[in-house]
Structure formats: C-alpha cells, structure tokens
Amino acid sequence: MTPHPAAPSRRTLLRALAALPASAVLLGETPGLLGSALAAAPPNGSATRYTIVPFLNSDDGTVNVYQSDDATDFRLLRSSAYTPPANRIRDASVIRHTDGYYYVTYTTHTWQDTSRTIGFARSSDRVNWTFLYDYTVPVANLSRAWAPEWFVDGDGSVGIIVSCSTANDEWIFTPYLLRATNSALTAWSSPVALSGIGANHIDTFIVKIGSTYHAFPKNETTKYIEYATASNLTGPYTIRRTGDWAGWGSYREGPALVRLDNGGWRIFFDGYGDGNYYYSDSYDTFATWTAPAALPGISGTARHFTVVKETVPGGPSLARNVTRSFRSANYSTRYWQQQSGLLNLPVVSGSSTTAEKQAATFTAVAGLADGSGCSFRDAAGNYLRHWDFRARFDPNDGTSTFARDATFILRAGAASGSARFESYNYPGRYLRHYGYQLRVERSDGTDLFRQDSSFVPVAAWA
C-alpha cells in the first residue's frame, strides 16, 4: 500500500529495450528509464534470473554461485565454482557480455597485502569458470587495486570502476575508470580518476539514468555509503548525501544496485560490522529507501558481490481469463477460498457445498499494474489484494495503489506444477498460508516458507 510511481506499459518497455545493447539491458542501465529497464514481470513461461558470485566470509580463495528469481531468496547453484590458479578472489563483480559469456573481475589479494592486479575469469554457463588473466592496473606508485566493478554505459561501452591507493598513502583509496578497448575485454585504457568523489572513497558503484550518472561510494572515514551524481562518467561528481542519509547505518560496504521487476531499484550491501548482508529498495530516484533487511540464507556467508539480471525461458505459466482453483502444494486437500471477504485455506472436496466450491473458484487475469503479472477475481468480481499484509477481496477502486496491491508476479513453486505469487509492490513478500490464512509475508529463505507459499493451479471446483 506504499505509493509508488506508475509503471509504463510493457509495449513501451520492449520498444526501449530493443534499441539497447545487450550488455546495457542485462545490467539494467537503460538510459532515461528509471523503473523501466527490465521493469516488468517476466512473460508467461519465462523467469527473471539474478546471479551473484560472492567470495565467502570463511574463505577468500574461492567463490560460490547463487541464483534467485526475485533478488531476495538466493539459492546455491554451485559451491566453490571458481578458484583462481594463484592468489585470492575477493569482491567479484559479474556481467554477461555481448559475446554470451559471463565475466567476473575481482580483487586478487587479501586486504593486508599489496595488490596491484585485478583478475578476470569467464564462463559460458555460470558454473564452470576459466581463468583469463591478472591485469596490473597502471597507476603510478600503486599499492592496492581493490573492488573492481563492471559498468556498461548507454552506448554499450564496457568499463571497470576500481578503487586504488598509492604507496605513500596505502589506505586512502580513489576511484578510477578503466575502459575496455576491445570486445574481448583483454585491453584497457589508461586509468582516469573520477573527479569530485575524492580520496578515501572505496567500492564505488555507478548506474546511469538518462544523462545522469549516480554513484554510490563508501566513505572510508565515516564508514557510510554516500551518494553522488555527475553528467559525465568521469565527473566531476557532486556528493549529495552523506552520513546515515538512507538509514542503512555505518560499517557498510560493497554497494551494488539492480532494477526489480516492479520498476524499483534494489541496493545490496555488506554489513561487515554486524555480519549480515542487506538489501533496501527505492522508488523515487534514490531520494528515499526502505528499511534495510538482511538477505535470507546467505547473510553471514556471502561477501561483496554485484548482480547480473536476465530474463530466461522455463518459468511458470498461468492461463489468463480462465477459472481455476488453487491447491496448497503441501496440504493437498486445502484450497484457496474466499470467506467473508478474506482468503483462507480450508479443506474443499467433492462433498463441499456448491457455495463452498464457488468460493474456491477464481479467474486469473492480466495484472492490473503489470499485464505480465497476475490478478485474481472472485465470482462476485472482487479482486484479491493485500491490506495490512492480509489477503482479501475488494472491488477495484481504479487507483494505482489498488492496482499494485492486487498484482502478483509468478515465481517458480517448490513442487512440480506449482507457482508462487510475489507481491508486486512489496518485492520479496509472497502469498503464504499460516494457520490456514493467506497473508503476504516476507520470505525467510527456508524450504518451509517456499512450500507454504506454493500453490498448484487446478481445474476449477465450480
């Protein structure tokens, strides 16, 4: 029920995306389309896929690969997926390039050691990785080159933002830009310092919206993630927010941003001071943010990562304008049923009354807020929506708030043939039964939650 800006039509999004280089689309850095780049639910039969390649809190010599369909619940795809032939792997940043390969760049040494190189590896499938090379960053008197972050500009050019310090001040970092000078990503321009951000900033992550570059560097003095903007990639940047401006707290590092399917921006960051990994969302060009929440499942394990987002085949599908009943995946005799305006999960069977069967029958239609999502009508024409996170049925009042409350994004379910229904305007919250009542609850990353939030579309009871 939090007001969010209305999303543009999917047709508008597809026209804009068709004009973009694949690398820009995959990174969600679509010029001029805040809340629009890949900001639509995946089409029927497709799925959103987010991939991260973090190093481990217990081991900076290898990385795991995780994937998620909602940017909240990350599942292990392969443990120890890549171990470099020498040195370490920290702060791995990942993209999918126009050649179809996935590339990571990373810090090659522990924080205690001199580190003048950044490493590169690539993969065709995200789980089998091949070392490419270590690259010596050509900054005079270099002491440390840390936290290289991929950046793909609106024209498709590929760059890396890397934090560098010199021997005369080894703990004072400045962000530099390296531009790829060939499509193989094996040759790089001379490094250029980003002006305006200033020394003693590290882990700078940048996204571009329209003609504006938005930078999120960590201030190494205050330990806060700050916010800066510029009209050119190399600056000059103006620092616009400092201190605890977003409510994320201090001793935070490794910011990385990605667009969500509902048009918002999500930032991930490493809460190294307390051992958690956090996310927070914005819907107003980074002016305000939701309260940070710990990522379920990987907090305390994963360290400093970036995210690559794709739309892939093989996702769940649900026919629209067809009546269905919805059976619990883990309580096979229980079904969605409207009871006194609320959605509950009672037992429904062949001996149930006609009225009970009718109350357990719904029509799935195109999402009110996003046509690739889903909305659900009961027999009276009222729509399933959340109110104070309780699932209930109300008549459509025509407002954008109602449309978002009544729209759900299909995600893969825990059982064969099942689907999960993620709240459109509260990403990471799902229709989930508890005490046989349906609520929109935040995923905790457990198998039980996935089972409780999975439902099988079946032939209608009425």
Automatic annotation (TrEMBL):
One of its GO terms (biological process) is L-arabinose metabolic process. Pfam families: AbfB (PF05270). One of its GO terms (molecular function) is alpha-L-arabinofuranosidase activity. Keywords: Signal. The keyword Signal applies. Residues 1-24 form the signal peptide. Residues 325-456 form the Alpha-L-arabinofuranosidase B arabinose-binding domain. It comes from the Bacteria. This is Arabinofuranosidase.
